[in-house]
Design brief:
Layout: E1 2-4, E2 18-26, E3 29-35, E4 41-48, E5 61-63, H1 69-75, E6 78-85, E7 91-95, E8 101-104, H2 107-121, E9 130-135
Parallel strand pairs: 6-9
Antiparallel strand pairs: 1-2, 1-5, 2-3, 3-4, 6-7, 7-8
Amino acid sequence: MVALTEDLPEKKLLRGQVGTVVETLAPGVYEVEFCDDDGRTFATAALRESHNTPALSACTYRLINRRTEQAMIDEMNEIIFLVDEAPERGYQARALGESIFTEADDLESLHVHVRDAVQCHFEPNQAPKIIRLHFVREEVIAL
């Protein structure tokens, strides 16, 4: 699975959307399929693992996993949130692969809000055991 780290407006895909790698097209280039909650494909894109090629700079993404079968089973006990700074202040967190979104003014409150949101979203015996927060920070440096 992969999560976009940038919007792809030409494909109507937003940063944070999760897709599935369906084919390796070349070393470091993957065909990624994006599906709705009913499993219907709404977009596909050829994405490069790094963004060294200017024509593909909008196609950067973060590879979430390419693991063994056992690691994928272990992963079912984990949920990953992309966390970034909110436009005004504080933090916002969006789960990968689940429809969970929350925000808070500080990190301590964010931990509480994320934990509460996960507990509300899942049935008690189906909730993941681990919540992983992946902080995304974007900086622009002028030359």
